[in-house]
């Protein structure tokens, strides 16, 4: 089955950014684009039970009415989703994508993406969904669950699109980030875009060797690449370098698999995502 760029959209303010970044990625990768809307008929917060202390007949009638309302809500949600998919496809066509597709599914976003992940080359998602708190440093729970579940690259995007002009890879010599370097070297996604490779740590022979390997891999593949080794706390150092160099897009490894690595790397990943103002490409 053809691997594609898949973009998860909902009614949040991030959906426009998702559409535009997905179109950009689809064109850069030469991959088909599919927009996905999932209708979740199981609300996260339980509604109050209004049927308790009333007569039996009235209770049955109320339950019938509530059931009818649930059906109506589901129909409205599906119709809203169809309209959103139509608008997303039209926007992608304006961005230059020839034949973007749309799919609507019932269920939860995480379970749906897990089912479809064999079809996904790159998943594009907004930082938060329509049901999330809108504080600027808040991260949508759906995004966190998807990142922990899916074994595909995920591009987390802001609500407004800007064509990436500089990319930074947070590199630590681990298997995940070495794989990331190899993926970036082979991928057409960042063709013509300078790549900065940054190691946070001491200026040691091992770190210098790791950095030289990464830069050679990227340059041999035709990329313009430069690197730096910076001492300091990971998040502050990476954010500082990003601002200093005017980096548009951050690439980093996502959560690890072992429990200890999950706690160490996972917390850093989540915090970086929360504080990111621009797009972040997460590699698994």
From TrEMBL:
List the Pfam families: Usp
Q: Where is the UspA domain?
A: 1-158, 210-284
Q: Could you tell me which PANTHER family the record lists for this protein?
A: STRESS RESPONSE PROTEIN NHAX, UNIVERSAL STRESS PROTEIN UP12
Give the family from UniProt.
Answer: Belongs to the universal stress protein A family.
For this entry, the protein name equals Universal stress protein
């Amino acid at each position: 089955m053809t691997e594609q760029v898949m973009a998860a959209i909902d009614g949040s303010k991030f959906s426009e950014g998702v559409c535009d970044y997905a179109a950009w990625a689809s064109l850069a990768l030469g991959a088909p684009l599919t927009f996905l809307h999932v209708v979740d008929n199981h609300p996260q917060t339980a509604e109050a039970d209004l049927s308790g202390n009333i007569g039996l007949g009235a209770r049955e009638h109320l339950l019938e009415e509530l059931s009818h309302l649930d059906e109506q809500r589901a129909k409205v949600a599906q119709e809203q989703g169809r309209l959103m998919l139509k608008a997303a496809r039209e926007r992608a066509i304006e961005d230059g994508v020839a034949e973007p597709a749309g799919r609507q599914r019932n269920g939860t976003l995480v379970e749906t993406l897990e089912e479809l992940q064999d079809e996904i080359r790159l998943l594009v998602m907004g930082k938060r969904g329509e049901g999330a708190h809108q504080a600027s440093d808040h991260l949508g729970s759906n995004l966190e669950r998807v990142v922990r579940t899916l074994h595909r690259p995920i591009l987390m995007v802001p609500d407004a699109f800007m064509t990436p002009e500089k990319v930074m890879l947070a590199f630590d010599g681990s298997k995940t980030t070495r794989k990331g370097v190899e993926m970036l070297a082979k991928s057409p996604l960042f063709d013509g875009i300078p790549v900065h490779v940054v190691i946070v740590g001491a200026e040691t022979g091992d770190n210098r060797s790791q950095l030289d390997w990464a830069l050679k891999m990227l340059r041999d593949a035709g990329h313009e690449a430069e690197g730096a080794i910076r001492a300091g706390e990971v998040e502050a150092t990476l954010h500082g370098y990003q601002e200093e160099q005017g980096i548009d897009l951050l690439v980093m490894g996502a959560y690890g698999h072992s429990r200890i690595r999950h706690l160490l790397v996972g917390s850093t990943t989540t915090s970086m995502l929360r504080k990111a103002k621009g797009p972040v490409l997460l590699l698994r």
